[in-house]
Amino acid sequence: MASAKDLRVGIAGLGAIGLAVARRIDAGDVPGLALAAVAVRDREKAQCALAGFRSKPGLVDLAALPESADVIVECLPPKLFPTIARAAVARGRVFMPLSVGALLDHMDLVDLARQTGARIVVPTGALLGLDAVRAAAEGRIASATIVTRKPPAGLAGAPLLVERGLSVEGLKAPLKVFSGSAREAIAGFPANVNVAVALSLAGIGPDRTQVEVWADPTVTRNTHTVIVKSDSSDLTMTIENIPSEENPRTGRITALSVLAALRRLTSPLVVGS
């Protein structure tokens, strides 16, 4: 049963991540939070997905979601990011974007948040070690690199590959399909390297953070290796993400990362910087 003191959560998008987060909140797994509303394009499909919920949230239009919730979790295609982001920040809400790559084109939202009292909270997502990178950034980071390896099917159709006429079908050996900055990477792979943008925002920015993207037929999991060199520590960290059942391109840990970020908003004990 929701309490009047609970933070109201609104979820934009009920795909693999949004629905997993919604289920856990509805089950009462995160004390202090209540699922208030969701915004989706297909309401009939959403009603089916929410059929077994203990307390069904309201179904509202995207731009109206911040009117119904204190915290907005964005789980949408990047093209829909501006609508919900601006509405949430203008309303002074806690805005939690999964399409963090889209934030680079709308950094004016940070200035708007200063004016409205909103907070933009980026979950760690399918990455690791952002707490250590943030700590290192309080000193001096000399370099930050992320190497992403994905099964070729997970990269098929990426805009940069289409533009270059590069096929990853039938690969027998790993192929490096991109090397450049995080800003360049997200433009070429908008659905694949949001983790690189998250790393860049935690550290030395999207133009200095370097990214390699590999189509690798030898891996079955999306794998990210972060290498950071700084005046306080040198970091090398690798994560292999187990795919979710609903969407093999999405790691199970992404939804769990959102839940962990939400839990920090109400928990009396917070571990990690």
Structural summary, described in words:
This protein is of the alpha/beta class. It has 2 domains: 133 residues, NAD(P)-binding Rossmann-like Domain (Rossmann fold), CATH 3.40.50; 117 residues, Dihydrodipicolinate Reductase, domain 2 (2-Layer Sandwich), CATH 3.30.360. It has 11 helices and 11 strands. Strands 3-2-1-4-5-6 form a 6-stranded parallel sheet, with helices on both faces. A 5-stranded mixed sheet has the order 8-9-7-10-11. Strand 10 and strand 11 form a beta hairpin. Helix 4 packs parallel to helix 6. The protein is globular. The model has no long low-confidence stretch (mean pLDDT 95).
CATH topology of the largest domain: Rossmann fold
Query: Would you identify the CATH H-level superfamily of the largest domain?
Result: NAD(P)-binding Rossmann-like Domain
Number of domains: 2
Question: What is the overall shape?
Answer: globular
Structural class: alpha/beta
Largest sheet: 6 strands, parallel
Q: Give the helix level as a range of percent.
A: 25-40%
Write down the CATH class of the largest domain. Answer: Alpha Beta
Summarize this structure briefly:
With 273 residues, this protein is of the alpha/beta class. The protein has helices at residues 16-26, 43-49, 65-68, 81-90, 100-103, 108-116, 130-137, 159-164, 182-188, 194-202, 252-266, and strands spanning 7-12, 33-39, 58-60, 71-74, 94-97, 119-120, 141-150, 175-181, 210-215, 222-230, 234-241.
